[in-house]
Automatic annotation (TrEMBL):
CDD domains: lipoyl_domain (cd06849). Its EC number is 2.3.1.-. Belongs to the 2-oxoacid dehydrogenase family. Keywords: Acyltransferase, Lipoyl, Transferase. This is Dihydrolipoamide acetyltransferase component of pyruvate dehydrogenase complex. The keyword Transferase applies.
């Protein structure tokens, strides 16, 4: 029997969740015919059959996590061999040369460093399946007691079983851990007065245009940083990652070369991109290679934020909720429409002055009437 294993999915992805089998044991299948659909941290990917022939065995059930190199399917015929496959899908973006994002860090093992508890209490925590990091100590000098562990166990029981993070939410947790552990984050905030905008102005498209203006004023924010080499790459094109919030988690598909696209083309690209994300059929190459990120969270709610910068990018612009505010205009109070802005940046690479110049250029562009 020939064994086909989960192939390398590219982008440093090491696991996938089985979404749908397109065959069952005993079916005949042709080479390159869809064999199984799997969900990675990036998208749902169809994996084709590597062989013509009869399927002898399927090695996973729908909903199961499979690691790269683990058996997927067995095919009749020949001695038992293992086909580890090749990369599924081409991950390159044109001829662009860039620093590859470092693989997301794995969660650290819970060793209990810095936690004060006796061996008996630690044993009780293991027995009750309570992570000591989650327990609030009540003993003297911050010591965790048996009662603390038992109280935490009752709370966890009331909360119900733990739900393992899968797919996009798992990747989001890993990326946010990486951002918190590696990036020296800083945020500057300010407002753009957009009272001069004509009715029907496309907020997201205007934000993209303003972001381009910021990159021209301070190119250091449109860059990738290679932390292991302490080197940065300034990128001439502006590829914007657009944060898209869905029940499954946070997606960041990419709009390419936005500086050289018309407003209509950008709007069409946004609509197509969001439709693909909602359908979970966005190609993997459309989820990589952005040089700066835009989060228009104000469409949901909130004025200001401290968005996290995910390596290797070095900046993210957040736009809050548009609202009316009383301002001093020519010495008199007046009601004006205001767009709050939050710019987070990696202070290892970007200076405060560069961030301030970037944000000023963004605001100057947004406050134009055209």
């Amino acid at each position: 029997m020939k064994i086909f294993k989960l192939p390398d999915l590219g982008e440093g992805l090491q696991e996938a969740e089985i979404v749908e089998w397109h065959v069952k044991a005993g079916d005949e299948i042709a080479a390159d015919q869809p064999l199984v659909s799997v969900e990675t941290a990036k998208a749902i990917v169809d994996i084709p059959s590597p062989y013509d022939g009869r399927v002898a065995k399927l090695y996973g059930e729908v909903g199961q996590l499979v690691h790269v190199g683990a058996p997927l399917a067995g095919f009749e015929g020949g001695a038992e061999t293992a086909d580890t496959g090749t990369v599924v899908g081409e991950m390159q973006v044109g001829q662009e040369v860039r620093a590859e994002a470092p693989a997301a860090l794995a969660p650290a093992a819970h060793g209990g460093a810095g936690i004060r508890a006796t061996p008996a209490v630690r044993a009780l925590a293991r027995q009750l399946k309570v992570e000591l990091e989650m327990v609030t100590p009540s003993g003297a000098d911050g010591v965790i007691t048996r009662e603390d562990v038992q109280r935490a166990a009752r709370v966890l029981a009331e909360a119900g079983p733990a739900e393992a993070l899968r797919g996009v939410r798992r990747a989001m947790a890993q990326n946010m851990s990486l951002a918190q552990s590696e990036v020296a984050g800083a945020t500057v905030i300010d407002d753009a007065v957009i009272h001069a905008w004509p009715p029907g102005t496309d907020v997201t498209v205007r934000l993209i245009r303003a972001l381009v203006a910021g990159c021209r004023a301070a190119p250091a924010l449109n860059a990738w940083y290679e932390s292991h080499a302490m080197a940065r790459r300034l990128v001439p094109q502006v590829h914007v990652g657009i944060a898209v919030d869905l029940p499954d988690g946070l997606f960041v598909p990419v709009l390419r070369d936005v500086a050289n696209r018309s407003p209509d083309d950008l709007r069409q690209g946004l609509e197509r991109m969001r439709a693909d994300v909602r359908a979970r059929r966005i190609p993997p190459e459309e989820m990589r290679g952005h040089t700066i990120t835009l989060s228009n969270f104000g469409m949901i709610g909130g004025k200001y934020a401290s968005p996290l910068v995910v390596p290797p990018t070095v900046a993210i612009l957040g736009a809050g909720r548009v609202h009316e505010q009383v301002l001093a205009v020519d010495g008199a109070p007046a009601v004006r429409r205001v767009l709050p802005l939050s710019l987070s940046f990696d202070h290892r690479v970007v200076t405060g002055g560069e961030a301030a110049r970037f944000l000023k250029a963004v605001i100057d562009d947004l406050e134009r009437a055209d």
